[in-house]
Amino acid sequence: MLLIINNQTKQYKRYPFNLEELMDLELKGKTKGVAVALNNQVIPRDRWSDTLLADTDSILIITATQGG
């Protein structure tokens, strides 16, 4: 499966899988303060496990950071 994550192309061997599994792979369980958009549509955290991914989907992962 080919996915575009934050404008970078990544290849995954497992297919199909959902947005929650992808976040576990990419963020290693550190999903606090994270927002995700799939193909320019924000997906609420409670829908990650129900959201299946397809080849060439575009995912934007935004992480809140501290600062001032």
Provide a descriptive summary of the structure in words.
- By secondary structure, this protein is α+β, with helices and mostly antiparallel strands.
- It has one helix spanning 19-27, and strands at residues 2-5, 8-11, 34-38, 41-43, 58-63.
The radius of gyration computed from the alpha-carbon positions, rounded to a whole number of angstroms, is 12 Å
**Biggest sheet features:** 5 strands, mixed
**Strand fraction band?**
25-35%
Spatial strand order of the main sheet: 2-1-5-3-4
Number of helices: 1
* SSE string, helices as H and strands as E: EEHEEE
The class by helix and strand makeup works out as: alpha+beta
Please tell me what the overall shape is: globular
Number of strands: 5
N-end to C-end Cα span: 39 Å
- Overall pLDDT: 91
The residue ranges in which pLDDT falls below 50 over 5 or more consecutive positions are none
User: Can you give the helix content as a percent range?
Assistant: 10-25%
Based on the model shown, name its key terms.
68 residues; alpha+beta; 32% strand
Strands, helices and their partners?
Elements: E1 2-5, E2 8-11, H1 19-27, E3 34-38, E4 41-43, E5 58-63
Parallel strand pairs: 1-5
Antiparallel strand pairs: 1-2, 3-4, 3-5
Concise account of the structure shown:
This protein is α+β, with helices and mostly antiparallel strands.
